[in-house]
Amino acid sequence: MADKKFDPQTLVKATLSKALEVQYPLAVDNVARLRRVHPGKSPGELITYLKTVYLGAVTVSGAGAGAAAIVPNGWVQVPVAVADLLTFLEASVLYTLSVAEIHGMDVEDVERRRFLVTAVLIGNTAATTLTEPLIGRTAPYWGKKIVQSIPMSAIDTANKVLGPRFVTKYGTKQGVLVLGKQIPYFIGVGIGAGGNHVFGWFVIKSAGKILGPLPKSWDDLSEEDISSSSDI
User: Fold this and answer.
1) 146 vs 129: CA distance, rounded Å
2) Could you give the CA distance from residue 181 to residue 186 in angstroms, rounded to a whole number?
3) CA 200 to chain centre
4) Three-state SS sequence of the chain
5) Which of 7, 80, 118, 139 is 20 to 30 A from 174 via CA?
């Protein structure tokens, strides 16, 4: 019964859709709060802070799922594994949208948001390979192009291609990793924490390659936004 209920592909699809709605306003508010609390920090310094918070959150979640392996009870382990998978995805969506907000990207449209987030979670190289035939040749750091210049019809088409790839990647590979944490004794703690840490670094590096380097100051970011608006 427990195995039939554990359907990672259905879970990750539903979690992504919900997170894209729920985490966006949280990301906007969180970045605004951080700028108020730390007015002297540059965009890059806030990104560094977010990286630390994000990696800490997913690592702790993974360790918790691994520790649950000491309980030899599938009815307990499977819900813990599911919770860890969903926590990782939600944290990754929040991190990606927060970084985009610091970059000054306006991703109010949920489908453009979906394109950006799935591209980051799938990985820059894979996402570029899959979407270039649909949206045209992409330059390095092509994240802003998703918001500023790609037509909505191309966004919708790209999402139809990236969606199944995302579900397959996290519903099987990540799902197997989560279930692999259910190893007897405390060995599972190290596997859980280490696995989530590696996946977290993958998300961070992918976001950096797609969104690119940040301006040194908030004033530079504002000037860049004005320049980009005049070019459209």
Assistant:
1) 15
2) 10
3) 9
4) CHHHHCCHHHHHHHHHHHHHHHHHHHHHHHHHHHHHHCCCCCHHHHHHHHHHHHHHHHHHHHHHHHHHHHCCCHHHHHHHHHHHHHHHHHHHHHHHHHHHHHCCCCCCCHHHHHHHHHHHHHCHHHHHHHHHHHHCCCCCCCHHHHHHCCCHHHHHHHHHHHHHHHHHHHHHHHHHHHHHCCCCCCHHHHHHHHHHHHHHHHHHHHHHHHHCCCCCCHHHHHHHHHHHHHHC
5) 139
Phi, psi for 213 (deg, rounded to 5) = -70, 150
Rounded to whole angstroms, how far apart are CA atoms 42 and 46? 6
**pTM (2 decimals)?**
0.77
Q: Per residue in 65-76, pLDDT tens?
A: 444 444 444 444
Long-range contacts of 123-132 (CB under 8 A, 24+ apart): 123/202, 123/206, 124/206, 124/209, 124/210, 126/165, 127/162, 127/210, 130/158, 130/161, 130/162, 130/165, 131/158, 131/161, 131/162
